[in-house]
Amino acid sequence: MKNKWRGGKKSGKRSGGRFRRIRYGMIALLFAALFGVLQGETAFALNRPAVSAEGAVLYRADTGTYLFEKNADVGYYPASVTKLMTALLVLENCNLDDTVTFTAAATEHLESGAVNLALTAGDRVSVRDCLYGLLLKSANEVANGLAEHVSGSVPAFAARMNARALELGCTGTNFSNPNGLTNAKHVTTAHDLALIAKACFSREDFRTIQRSTVYHFPATKKRPNGTTIVMGHKMLSSGSSLYYPGVLGGKTGYTRAAGNTLVTCAERNGVRLIAVVLKSRSTQYADTKALLDYGFQLSGTGQTEAEAAKATTQNEGAESGGPRSAEDKNRDTQAVRENSPGGEDAGSGSLLFVTPSHALSGEAESPEKEGETAASDRRDNGGEAQQGARPASQTGPGAVPPGWKQQGGDWYYGKQDGMQARDERLEIDGFEYWFDEKGRMITGWKQDATGAWYYLRPSFGGMRKNGWIQDRGSWYYLSESGRMLTNAMTPDGYRVDAEGKWIEN
């Protein structure tokens, strides 16, 4: 049978050629489209933002997804970003025209250097004005006064803060005061602060206060002409070099123990992002900008968050498995340890180590980076890696090189006399380390021959001293020598029992 095109008329031949060209053109277009998609996937494989702060998250509030996490569930001192929760409770429980009468308990005995508005006992200020003083100026006595107005006392208000945090889905938060001034038991996580900020920015009255960059605080006894206060968050004002279009507001914080802390909410084209930065060393704004840039770029690529996470992981070997919902994260906050002062079995519960500089979650802690030694302590030494002594030539037969050596995942230390540290405690570069009978550096809990307990930080092995740690709901105090106190009063005035646990009143 003849080909119908060849057997046709002359005009049919021309028609067949045209259809063939159309067919080939369509195939070419399909190949071009496929190639374009592949190119697009490569172009949209965003790099994870470089964040210097110890803890951080980027949370997409309109979808409930965490787009970036760094130590998201580790406890840190929040400093004044605590005041987000204070403001939320005040707005939920007060009328803005109510009057707050300040007491001596609220205005006196603040921590040295604490930000304030010079309020004194007897000053009367509206709740509305107090909220501006709280969120713009970050005045600490204002936080105390609002707490007393809502709950009658600061401890009662702190209990309500914690109850509300649980309602919001927070899993690693314990508030002790309404202002964030240093307290060993006042900790939260980047994950939790994102949830608190989401609740705050869902309220129009909160957003109204946050939009203000300047406010006139009313007259008080010490300041009869009132006080002009300025928003502390530098990304909100268009006149600031740190201005970031789309920022709805946020809260700054700083104490020596907490470092710089920053919570920021920004929205563009219906995409609402919350960036949380904790334990920063003056990089809080750069970190926040990097997080927000990443989030808004991600929202404009057309990718789903999971696809972007997959591409990012392929490109960088990222430390996070990708965006996770709040429900996913609430199921993933457990850590276990092998031993404890209370003698509990391994794996019997979750573990959160808390120190005055920050909290450590032993199992979840990031390993030392390649090229660093176990003497590296980024938390207590200004963020710089502290290097142990490097191997030197041996001084005789059987002598070991002085300094740190890693073998099979364990760390060992050669002393200056050519002997390896074994079954001993040893001070190295200002930190005390403990080595077992095989010479391996010990981390975690260690009990000596007398029955006393000590704690050696998993991050680098240095013994923890002069501070609290929290273990599965119980608090323990480590003395100046590193020994866990038992049946004693701690230097900051708390009682611990025979097992070293804090006795709650």
Annotate the secondary structure layout:
Layout: H1 10-43, E1 55-60, E2 65-70, H2 83-93, E3 99-101, H3 104-107, E4 124-126, H4 127-137, H5 140-151, H6 154-167, H7 190-201, H8 204-211, E5 214-217, E6 227-230, E7 247-255, E8 259-268, E9 271-280, H9 284-299, H10 305-316, E10 324-325, H11 326-330, E11 353-354, E12 359-360, E13 403-407, E14 410-414, E15 424-428, E16 431-435, E17 444-447, E18 453-456, E19 467-471, E20 474-478, E21 488-489, E22 495-496
Antiparallel strand pairs: 1-2, 1-9, 2-10, 3-4, 5-6, 7-8, 8-9, 11-12, 13-14, 15-16, 17-18, 19-20, 21-22
Structural write-up:
This protein has 505 residues and is an alpha+beta fold. Among the domains are: 55-300, Beta-lactamase, CATH 3.40.710; 403-503, Ribbon (left handed beta-beta-3-solenoid), CATH 2.10.270.10. The chain has helices spanning 10-43, 83-93, 104-107, 127-137, 140-151, 154-167, 190-201, 204-211, 284-299, 305-316, 326-330; strands at 55-60, 65-70, 99-101, 124-126, 214-217, 227-230, 247-255, 259-268, 271-280, 324-325, 353-354, 359-360, 403-407, 410-414, 424-428, 431-435, 444-447, 453-456, 467-471, 474-478, 488-489, 495-496. The protein has a 6-stranded antiparallel β-sheet with strand order 7-8-9-1-2-10, sandwiched between helices. Helix 2 (83-93) runs parallel beside helix 7 and helix 5 crosses helix 6. The longest helix is centred in the first third of the chain and has 34 residues, at 10-43.
